């Protein structure tokens, strides 16, 4: 799997993660290959700021040095970073745009799965917009904006709406697909040096 470079300067490295690659090392010698270790081969000062699920592809940003990492992490925490994802879901998603506001919590007996829990869940909000519907394949192409950043948020919210992402076998998708059809396609963030906005884009591979 190749790791495409999207942007680099003295403070930031942005790459396009392929589906099936870890963001950070996992447990065991067979899980050391990941975005972070590959980027550090070329940029030794690169530090992880955020992650994508192994099955998800798209934009990942790393900070070059502790100061840049800290500034970027604070921007994420203050919700100054705006993310857009593209997904394929079965059926015609209705209504064509709206919010999914459902609290999420870890499904402890079935980790790493998450689930909706109205009593114990943390507030979680996803905005969505149906871009197109393909009658031949009976799938909707959907743009997603996670306002909060819970683990598996997009996957669980679409499942709760009755449209599990195509290829998401963890959450019960029955549509055969070579991968999870979820891609981080756009990310806008303030530059850690001067606060100027940077917009990064990655074309979905599906």
Write the SSE topology.
Blueprint: E1 4-8, E2 12-17, H1 35-42, E3 46-48, E4 57-64, H2 66-77, E5 82-90, E6 97-101, E7 104-106, E8 114-116, E9 125-134, E10 139-146, H3 153-160, E11 182-190, E12 197-201
Parallel strand pairs: 4-11
Antiparallel strand pairs: 1-2, 2-4, 3-4, 5-10, 5-11, 6-9, 7-8, 9-10, 11-12
Written overview of the protein:
The structure is a single chain. Helices cover 14% and strands 36% of the residues. It has 206 residues and is mostly beta strands. Strand 1 and strand 2 form a beta hairpin. The longest helix is centred in the middle third of the chain and has 12 residues, at 66-77. The chain starts with a strand and ends in a 5-residue tail after the last strand.
In brief:
This protein is mostly beta strands and 206 residues long.
Question: What share of residues are in beta strands?
Answer: 35-45%
What is the gyration radius calculated from CA atoms? 17 Å
Ranges with pLDDT <50 over ≥5 residues?
none
> Sheet with the most strands?
10 strands, mixed
Q: What is the average per-residue confidence, as pLDDT, rounded to a whole number?
A: 96
Helix content: 10-25%
How far apart, in Å, are the first and last alpha carbons? 16 Å
If helices are DSSP runs of H or I spanning 4 or more residues, what is the number of helices? 3
Query: What's the shape?
Result: globular
> How many extended strands?
12
Secondary-structure-based class equals mainly beta
Order of helices and strands: EEHEEHEEEEEEHEE
Counting copies of identical and different chains, the oligomeric state is single chain
């Amino acid at each position: 799997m190749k790791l495409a470079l999207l942007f680099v300067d003295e403070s930031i490295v942005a790459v396009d993660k392929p589906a099936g690659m870890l963001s950070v090392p996992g447990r065991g010698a067979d899980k050391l290959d990941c975005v972070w270790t590959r980027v550090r081969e070329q940029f030794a000062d690169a530090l992880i700021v955020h992650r994508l699920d192994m099955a998800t592809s798209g934009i990942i940003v790393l900070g070059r040095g502790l100061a840049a990492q800290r500034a970027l992490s604070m921007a994420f925490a203050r919700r100054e970073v705006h993310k857009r994802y593209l997904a394929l879901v079965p059926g015609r998603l209705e209504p064509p745009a709206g919010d999914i506001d459902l609290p999420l919590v870890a499904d402890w007996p079935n980790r790493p799965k998450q689930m909706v829990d109205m009593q114990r869940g943390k507030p979680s909000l996803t905005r969505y917009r149906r871009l197109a519907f393909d009658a031949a394949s009976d799938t909707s192409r959907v743009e997603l904006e996670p306002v909060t950043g819970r683990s598996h948020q997009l996957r669980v919210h679409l499942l709760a709406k009755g449209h599990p992402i195509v290829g998401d076998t963890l959450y019960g998708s029955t549509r055969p697909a070579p991968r999870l059809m979820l891609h981080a396609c756009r990310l806008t963030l303030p530059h850690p040096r001067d606060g100027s906005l940077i917009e990064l884009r990655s074309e979905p591979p599906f």
